[in-house]
Target: 4-hydroxyphenylpyruvate dioxygenase
Amino acid sequence: MTTYTDKGPKPTAGEFLAFDHLKLWVGNAKQASGYYITRFGFQPLGYQGLETGSRKIASHAVKQNKIVFVFESSYDPDDKLMSSHLSRHGDGVRDIAFSVVDIDSIVRVAKKRGARVVRDVWEEQDDNGVVRMATLQTFGDTLHTLVDRTNYRGKFLPGYVDSPDDPISRLLPDPKLNFIDHCVGNQPENQMEPVAKWYEDNLQFHRFWSVDDTQLHTEYSALRSIVMTNYEETVKIPINEPAPGKKRSQIQEFVEYYGGSGIQHIALNTDDIIRAVENLRARGMEFLQVPDSYYDLLRSRLKSSGTNILEDISVLQKLKILIDYDENGYLLQIFTKNVQDRPTLFIEIIQRRNHNGFGAGNFQALFEAIEIEQEKRGNL
Model:
């Protein structure tokens, strides 16, 4: 793996703060939001629909600490844009929204450098103030909406009414997921570099970390990855592509079932992954399984490296949590099974202990676990 230390020049104006929210286009927004409330421990945040004057789109926003997901469905049977998107891609992430400061400067640079502006800067307001937004086209059919909340103090966005609390979710154990750590975009072969360059040119992002297929491969499949991030390194977008292998990689499987480029998984950060996974399992979440031999090898490697893991390895083994480490620290991670019928989107739970990588040391165990699921689907 390669870590990049050169951020390039700091943008003279405009700043990316964090992931603001993720918008998912789904077949049934009410039911999809209910799934994330029940299974992942989100709480209802806001609603837009017929009752609020939204005649075209039903929108359900849910929240857990700093994580906000928005699920949208169309009321209109003649809505060709959303219906064709869902037919091609299935349920998935349509828009990765960023919280920003000085939206005008960011959009001005993006325009100058050739970015496609889907919707130029506009304003929405209510009694809590004014939000300024703009939307850019990134890879595939995925969008980035920039959200400037400098003069807004509301819970989410103008036009949303508060959603009632969900008493069932409150009765289940809280996984305490804190914020979006990163979002991974999968690309067809030979598209990783052009997409990475798009972020460099249009959003003034820089390369943070990368690996290639000489480092990340199993007997059957391989991938390449470049992690793009803003100057402050507060939002990270890994860009993956498949590399040639004996059989179909999980990246290629995603591209084929999603119908092109898109978001393959969302990583949610926690400060206690053991509690998070135990509570998510109690809520009915299913995770990828890795063999016990992974932990036998891990114990040997940790001992020889002198790395000290604070958590009980036997507990991590029981829960099938993966560990990656370097000379500075380590991370703990685990991946859910797909959260819809298509083998596309899934969720990662991650805890970092002074480790800024993305689990390169776990690639073989992770890919072998995914390959077991691919073989069950007849897609390996």
